[in-house]
Structures are given as structure tokens and as C-alpha cells.
Amino acid sequence: MEIAHSLQQIQSSYIREILAAATDKNVISLAGGLPDEKTFPIDLMRPTLEAIPDMVEVFQYGATAGYGPLLEHLTHTFKLPDSHMVIATTGSQQGLDLIARAYINPGDTVIMEAPSYLGAMQVFGLVQANMVTVPQTESGPDLQALESAFKAEAPKMFYAVPDFHNPTGVCWSLDTRKAVAKLCEQYNVAFIEDAPYRELRFSGEALPMVSDFCPQHSIVLRSFSKIASPGLRIGAVTGKVSYLEPLVKVKQGADLHSSVPMQALLHGLLKHDNFELHMSKIQALYHERYQVLNSELKKQLPESCKVKDVDGGMFVWVTLPECDTFALAKQLLANGVAVVPSPVFYPDESQATPALRLNFTNAEPNELVEAVSRLSTVLKAL
Where are the alpha helices (DSSP H) in 110-240? Predict the structure, then answer.
């Protein structure tokens, strides 16, 4: 049976493939965006885990939008206005998929930064969107290029990760956030704000979300994989009711509802008295590892390589002199280090500038030091 034309255009995830190779115990993986298993708050979840067998109602079919107590908690935590709602999803990735299926027709234009999140490119590719990219600067998207794209392309939406961008780690400035919100309102473009790393800030002051400046023109995707555990597979989508009701309709046909026991477990975790302490520990751990990686990169790499400082998230972006980054990644893997080359983060690989995305959250400090040593050796040999 022939597969759908839309799927024929989608390449397998390079990151998924390289993660399989990186399971070798001799390979230090800086490739995947994996949280450290030591951060999984098992002890904080234990009271709810022990109580769930007596919560018979969570084992029945549930509401498509989500488990009521969790939705109430999130509505309060996110300070949503009465005109907005929240949907619990099977990971924030499903939220992105629901948005694409609810709103994108083949050929509709979606604006993205370049580079951009690989998972978003896959989702938009499956609905056959016309993906148009704008360059990224140190403070966010190139605003002049963004406005030109809004004028020329009349897009339905602009998708971005403003806090600790995947893959570059860039955090948009306050002025950029306000300017993007204003442009979205001016040109009637929905802003899709993906915020999986926002809670992972370990230095500097938190900035308002972009959606705070354009609440009637935005949808927000949130993830609990980085602050609870990926295995729960619970995310959340928030936005005005008229934007989200079509997503509920699509979700009904997709999975009826996300796992109710897992939503109840997440609700218990978020209400726990020590949850804020848990978050502080995650931030401190990742800050320490980032400092080790950042310091070693600047100490060991050739001067032709540039490292961008970050204030949070999970990734460091290293720009390189002109080279074949796929061949480099293959050579590094042969030397026991897994990385992700920059072209996989561009809809058009030919537009990619040579760079590597490095993850610092799932390797011990001594492993990070050794990984940079191996990286440096290979780069100097080239």
C-alpha cells in the first residue's frame, strides 16, 4: 500500500537515529534533549502514585480537554483570563500537531526562525505547509525580515521558541518580544509560542512571554517533560477559547483524551509543597553542567569556533568554519561523541551555516570535559 504523499516528503528524524547509535556505553551523547534521570521527582510523585489505585474515576474515559482538577490548577497557575482555556495533551508535541491539523491547509504559509525546532518542521511538513524562514539574531528573529515575510507571504501563523531556543539557546530580548507581538496583531498572524524550556532559566531575570503582549493572537505550548519526566507524556496548550475549540475537535479523533491517571499524577506533583524546591534543584544542576561545558568549549576549541552563551535551557550552539557538518558528526561519533549538525534544523539544508547543537543536561561534568576534548581533537585534525 502506498503511503500518503505528505509522509513521503518527511525524512526520518536524524536525532532519533543518532540517539540509537549513542546508546553505546563508549559514546558520550550531547545529541538529544534529554533531562537527567536524577531530576525525575519520584519521591514527590510517590504520595499520588500510592493514592491513584483508590481514585477509580481516573480509570474511566475522561473529558477530551483534560482532567478537571489539573485544568483548574493550570488555569490558576498560568493566570488565564476568562476568554482563555487550557487543553491537556499527550506531550506538547501533540499540541503542535493539533494546531497544524486544525488550521493548516496544504500550501498555507507558516513562518519560522532559521534554524528551528526539528519536531515542528516535521509536523508542518506532514500537513504540507509552506515553511518560510527568517534569520535569527542574538536577540531573536530579524524583525525587518519578519515584517517583510508577513507582508509578502500573508502567513497564518508564526511559530517560535522565544525562551532558550532549540537549537541555538537564544532568549529573545524584551524589545523583540514586544515588537513581534505588535507585528502579529498588525498583520493578523497567530503567534505559536513554544515554551518547553522556560522554567529552566538558571541565570538572569525572567522576561514576560511574547503571548502576554498579544493574548488574542497567540497559542502557547507548554511541556512538563523537562520539569517532571518525559515518560508522563503530558503537555498543555493555552489560548483563547475560539482558537482552542477546534483543537479539542481534532483531539477527539486522535486519541479521545490523554491518559487521565498520568494527568492526576502530574496534578499531585504540581501541588506538592516541595515542587518549587525541586525546580530550584534542576536549575542549579543544569547551571553547573552548562558552566562546565561552556568553559571547556572556550578553553579547548579552535578560535575559529564560536560559542553562544545561554541563561538557561538545554543546549549550546557552536558555530564552525566552513565544513561538512554531517561528515564531522559522523567522525565525532566514531570518536565516541554524539552531536547534532546544523542542517537538520533548516527546512532547506542548503541554507544552514556550519554549526553543532550540544546538549549539556544529560551528561556528568567529567563526561562533558571528555566530550569537549574529543570534539577539539577532531576539529583540530580537520
Answer: 118-126, 143-153, 174-186
